[in-house]
Amino acid sequence: MFRGIYTAASGMLAQQRKTEILTNNMANANTPGFKAEQTTIRSFPEMLMSAIDDTNVPTKKGLNLNLIRPIGNLSTGIYLQETMPNFAQGNVYETDYNTDLALMNGNLPAGSSIFFRLAHPDGGEAYTRNGNFALDGQGYLVNGDGYYVLSENGDRIQLPNEEFQVTEDGAVYVNGQQVARIGVAFAPNANDLVKQDNGLFRTQDGQALPSAFAEGDVTFSIRQRFLEGSNVDAAQSMTELLTAYRAFEANQKVVQAYDKSMDKAVNEIGKV
């Protein structure tokens, strides 16, 4: 009886966690460059249940042997194994702001992705698909959190004003002169990246990703005055949210049924 409670409770915990992730996805449906989280729910390893009986062997020493009789498999519940971002390209829309940039995926190997390079305050680089940039008080190109946007050479990009042009290959021009090139990083396996707050990603070992411009088989482009929107499918997320909520309720009713059974066993049957 108690094992059934544990199994149902594990289902409730998994569905609660899934609900939190789906809710966060829907809350960021309008966040530029946001990548929806995907969940994987799996069952715990099944246990092979056996009955152990004693038998006496008619010998002079009176041996007592244990006989194992297989009963069958028993599931031990489910758990939310992992969450992985969906790195599919989001819809691109026009903003008419010179400081807005959008990465357009071209030919990318399966499982890979490209990102804007940012200087992280703690050292090293951070990566993002959110190209909603601006100029700070000193004219440096920064993201919404104030992280400096890096050039192809890993330098900060300082501009006199917002009257600059960015070509599809990332070259930045001021008054017809190229002053920098937007840094774009290439992640061979995007799922190895660690997702942080505000749509940022970092490598697990802190090492910088290679430049996407140095990858011969990778093609992409940058569009100025455009932003890449979130790739969250609001309708699908709502459907999955309702399904998770109903699964949570079903497991909750199982726990309540076990609770009532134990109440009768203790308070009614125990009196007999």
TrEMBL record:
The alphabetical list of record keywords is: Bacterial flagellum, Cell projection, Cilium, Flagellum
Descriptive protein name: Flagellar hook-basal body protein
Q: Which family does it belong to?
A: Belongs to the flagella basal body rod proteins family.
Q: What is the lineage of its organism?
A: Bacteria, Bacillati, Bacillota, Bacilli, Bacillales
Q: Does the keyword Transferase apply?
A: no
Outline the extent of the Flagellar basal-body/hook protein C-terminal domain: 223-267
The entry's localization annotation reads: Bacterial flagellum basal body
Q: Which domain of life is it from?
A: Bacteria
- Per the UniProt record, the source organism is Ureibacillus suwonensis
Ranges where the Flagellar hook protein FlgE/F/G-like D1 domain occurs: 115-174
- Every copy of the Flagellar basal body rod protein N-terminal domain together lies at 5-35
